Amino acid sequence: MARPTIADIAQRVGVSKGAVSFALNGRPGVSEATRARILEAAREMNWRPHSAARALGGARAEAVGLVIARPASTLGVEPFFAQLLSGLQARLSRQQVAMHLLVVEDSAAEIEVYREWTSAHRVDGFILVDPQVRDPRPAALEELGAPAVVLGGSGGPGPLSSVWADDREAMLSVVDYLAALGHRRIAHVAGLPGFRHTQRRIRALRDSARRLGLTGAVSLPTDYSDAEGAAATRTLLSRGRAGASRPNPRPAARPAARPTAIVYDSDVMALAGLGVAMEMGVRVPDELSVVAFDDSVLTRVTHPAITSLSRDTFALGGQVAEVVLEVIADPGTRRNVKTATPRLVIRGSTAAPH
C-alpha cells in the first residue's frame, strides 16, 4: 500500500492540508474537535512523518548510528560485540531510540556513511568504535557537527566524548601474573595492528619484558579471526624447545624458544589457540598457559576453562548509550568516562611452567 500523506488525511477528514499540518505539529489554528478528528484519522491510516520532512522541521530522527569497519566474518562469531550491542540497544530502547548498524570495508567507507546519514538526517548521533592510530574519523565527525561518542581510546584530549578502559593496565596485570607464576617466554596473539588498543597492549608487553627480564616476549598481529589466531599459535608452538639438546649447537642459528604462555586479544582466538595446542600435543596448562583478553561464555565452557580478563560488556554498552544520549541532548557536552579496568579471572588454563 502507498504511504499515506497529509493530503490523504485532509481528504478523509474534509479539511485543508494546512489544518492537518497544524494539528499534527501541535500548532494553533484548528479547533480541538477538528484536531482530535485529524489525529484519529492519522492513527487509523498508520500515518508516520517522513524523515526528510522531519529533518527540515528540525525534529530528531530518534536513532543512533554505529558503523563498524571490520571483517563481517569475525563480527559474526565475536561474543564481545554481541554483548555490547545488547547493552546499547537495551538502554536506547528505554528512550525509544533505534540503532542503525552497518558493517563496511574500511575507514573511508565509514566516513562516507557518516556524511550520508548526517545529510539525510537518518540519525541524531554516532558511536565510534576501534580508535585507530592517526584516526581520521573524529575530525570528520567534528567537521560534520554530528554528536558522537568514542568507545575506547586512552582518555586523552580529543574533539569527541569518550568511554574507555585502561588497556595498558589490563595487559600489565596479565603479564605480572604470568611472570609471578614463573613464565619468562610470553607471546601475544594481538588484534589488528592499526587499532590504538592493540598498540597499547603490544607496548605494555614490551615494557614488561624489560622491567621483568622476560626473554621471549613477542606480539603477532591478526584480524581477530579464529583462522589467523590458530595460524599464529601454530607458528609460535612450532618453535624449538628451550634447553633441548642439539648436536654441535650454534646459538646464532638456534630458533627462538617456544613460549610457555600466550595472551590472546579475543576469546575466539584463545579457543582456536587451545585447539591448536591439543592438535600439536602441547598440554595446557602444563606446557602452555593460555589467557584471553575478552571473557565470555566460550571461555567458561571449554576444558580447561580459560583464564580471562573479565568485564560486564552489557553494562559497558549501556554506559556508552547513556553518554551518546547526553551528547545528543546537549551537543556542547564533552564527557570522558573511564570504566573499570577488566579484572583477571583465574581458571584452569594457567599454571606455573613445567
TrEMBL record:
Residues 4-58 form the HTH lacI-type domain. Residues 238-257 are annotated as: Disordered. The keyword Transcription regulation applies. It comes from the Bacteria. Coiled coil: none annotated. One of its GO terms (molecular function) is DNA binding. Residues 239-257 have a biased composition (Low complexity). Transmembrane segments: none annotated. Keywords: DNA-binding, Transcription, Transcription regulation. InterPro entries: HTH_LacI (IPR000843), LacI/GalR-like_sensor (IPR046335), Lambda_DNA-bd_dom_sf (IPR010982), Peripla_BP_I (IPR028082). PANTHER family: ALANINE RACEMASE (PTHR30146:SF155), LACI-RELATED TRANSCRIPTIONAL REPRESSOR (PTHR30146). This is LacI family DNA-binding transcriptional regulator. It comes from Nonomuraea maheshkhaliensis. The lineage of its organism: Bacteria, Bacillati, Actinomycetota, Actinomycetes, Streptosporangiales.
